[in-house]
């Protein structure tokens, strides 16, 4: 409206109404526009639409980023744990939700070590401290124990503005790094640990990838070679591909409970020297996916080999709390290195890793972790901090969760009895499930499972008949991928084929987590048994 007697609509009756409204002190109503104008739409004729399509076709051009133009190293990355079989499992879940009938009612995702997703309860004390850090007003609540409040206050004092929402130093909150160092000293029987050598990370994976970035260099035959166990956790092969480094395989001895043999390390190293510069040796202890726990003598042999061949050692020790078999014990590489004397402990470069995701905690989503790096060149320390600073800092809530892993309640504190009860319950339960899985698999014709000494997976060897291998080839699948896909489609059980972890030529395996509750695990194992027997009957 533009005042009395004037109306953009051109209508006299509207002008009179506007004048009356203004005189009464009211805002006049605007004229009602056509619906298409009100909704911001334009009604086009079919001829106009056809013309617009032609213009659009002329205007379109090739995409800048295509499979041909993308980074080839990223394209080469494979991560079997969340690969094609998991995507298929997701599709089946959607079909079940739509009411499409299947020979099962749910998909059991036994492909990944995600404890809480499988029903494991969180450790109360850890969640209490993180809750207090996240919402400090709870520090006044009588519902929380005093030992949890003390830890939360200490963590918050180390945060900018006493808030978990602030950035931390790139290396991590100082008081938490101090707690990690104290934990390592306790674990290793007094072997000294320097907080300056501790780097808090976004899970152990972040630390491993970061160290590899610094280590990889050279071109041609001088390109860095990274020695990894086969079977391996696919993080390693994925990181090596992304960095365009050279993967150097050494095979674990399946006939000897997946033991690591130094003679095999030497064979692998000598062969690799013909085409790359091997300078990194990765160890996973306890093993993933194989579950073996290395004995002291084996670790000493590996350290001597690394010292002799001038190799940088990476010790992935995220399952250090997960040891089940009698006679097995976790020994950290750091502890054994120091006990071997100054010639070794002052010279062998070692990075070791731990995480909140495994053990008895199972806090995968917090992405908490740390790495300890010893005997690093002083100038490289600065380069490492620089590289870490690019990603600013690891999640501060994950740092807080890591602090509770390394600084749990101690005897005499209010929360100790509940904490130790929950911790032992989780670990004892896992030990029972490890034995149950091993025993049940070994009763099935055509399946053999080594003892599950530690970690949280079974990696059984499966016999696949030649007819099934031929059919797999016809479907352009690895035989164990074909097997696992059939298992998923017929039973709803999602496991990962052994080819995603690496295995000796002519052998086939799958990896399955032992995390489901005991009753569900029994059902799962029975279903695998029934499926395998039918599979052998069909293809024999």
Keywords:
14 strands; 2 domains; 540 residues; 11% strand; seven-stranded mixed beta sheet; Aspartate Aminotransferase, domain 1; 20 helices; alpha/beta; three-stranded antiparallel beta sheet
Radius of gyration equals 30 Å
Helix content: 40-55%
Major β-sheet, in short?
7 strands, mixed
> Mean pLDDT, rounded to whole units?
89
**Main sheet: strand order:** 2-8-7-6-5-3-4
Beta-strand segment tally: 14
CATH secondary-structure class of the largest domain: Alpha Beta
Under the CATH scheme, the architecture of the largest domain is 3-Layer(aba) Sandwich
Which class of secondary structure composition applies to the elements?
alpha/beta
CATH topology of the largest domain: Aspartate Aminotransferase, domain 2
β-strand amount: 5-15%
Separation of termini? 87 Å
Count of the domains: 2
Give unreliable regions as ranges: none
Shape: globular
Spell out the CATH superfamily of the largest domain.
Type I PLP-dependent aspartate aminotransferase-like (Major domain)
The number of distinct helices, counting runs of at least 4 residues, comes to 20
């Amino acid at each position: 409206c533009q005042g009395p007697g004037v109306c953009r609509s051109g209508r006299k009756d509207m002008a009179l109404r506007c004048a009356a409204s203004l005189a009464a002190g009211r805002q006049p109503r605007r004229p009602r526009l056509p619906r298409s104008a009100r909704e911001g739409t334009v009604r086009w004729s079919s001829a106009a639409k056809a013309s617009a399509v032609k213009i659009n076709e002329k205007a379109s051009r090739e995409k800048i980023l295509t499979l041909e133009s993308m980074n080839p190293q990223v394209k080469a990355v494979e991560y079997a744990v969340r690969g094609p079989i998991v995507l298929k499992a997701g599709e089946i879940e959607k079909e079940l939700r739509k009411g499409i009938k299947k020979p099962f009612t749910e998909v059991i995702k036994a492909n990944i070590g995600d404890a809480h997703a499988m029903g494991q309860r969180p450790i109360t004390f850890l969640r209490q401290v993180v809750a207090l850090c996240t919402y400090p007003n709870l520090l006044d609540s009588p519902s929380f124990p005093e030992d949890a409040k003390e830890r939360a206050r200490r963590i918050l004092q180390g945060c900018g503005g006493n808030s978990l929402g602030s950035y931390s130093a790139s290396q991590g909150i100082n008081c938490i790094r101090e707690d990690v160092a104290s934990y390592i000293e306790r674990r290793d029987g007094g072997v000294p640990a320097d907080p300056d050598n501790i780097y808090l990370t976004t899970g152990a994976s972040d630390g491993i990838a970061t160290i590899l970035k610094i280590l990889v260099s050279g071109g041609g035959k001088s390109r860095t070679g990274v020695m990894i166990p086969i079977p391996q956790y696919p993080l390693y092969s994925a990181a090596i591909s992304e960095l365009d480094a050279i993967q150097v395989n050494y095979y674990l001895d399946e006939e000897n409970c997946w033991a690591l043999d130094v003679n095999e390390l030497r064979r692998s190293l000598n062969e690799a020297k013909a085409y790359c510069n091997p300078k990194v040796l990765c160890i996973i202890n306890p093993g993933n996916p194989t579950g073996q726990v290395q004995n002291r003598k084996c670790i000493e042999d590996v350290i001597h080999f690394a010292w002799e061949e001038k190799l940088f050692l990476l010790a992935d020790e995220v399952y250090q709390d997960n040891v089940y078999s009698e006679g097995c014990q976790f020994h950290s590489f750091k502890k054994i290195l120091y006990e071997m004397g100054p010639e070794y402990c002052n010279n062998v470069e070692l990075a070791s890793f731990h995480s909140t995701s495994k053990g008895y905690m199972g806090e995968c989503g917090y992405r908490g972790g740390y790495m300890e790096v010893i005997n690093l060149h002083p100038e490289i320390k600065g380069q490492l901090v620089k590289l870490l600073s690019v990603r600013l800092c690891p999640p501060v809530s994950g740092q807080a969760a890591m602090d509770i892993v390394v600084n749990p309640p101690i005897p005499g504190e209010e929360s100790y009895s509940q904490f130790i009860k929950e911790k032992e319950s989780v670990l004892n339960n896992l030990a029972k499930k490890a034995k149950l899985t091993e025993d049940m698999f070994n009763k099935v014709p055509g399946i053999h499972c080594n003892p599950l000494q530690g970690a949280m997976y079974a990696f059984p060897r499966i016999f696949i008949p030649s007819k099934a291998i031929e059919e797999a080839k016809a479907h352009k699948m690895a035989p164990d991928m074909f097997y696992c896909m059939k298992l998923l489609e017929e039973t709803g059980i999602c496991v990962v084929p052994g080819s995603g972890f690496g295995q000796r030529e002519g052998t086939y395996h799958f990896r399955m987590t032992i995390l489901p509750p005991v009753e569900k695990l029994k059902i799962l194992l029975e279903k695998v048994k029934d499926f395998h027997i039918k599979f052998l009957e069909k293809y024999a």
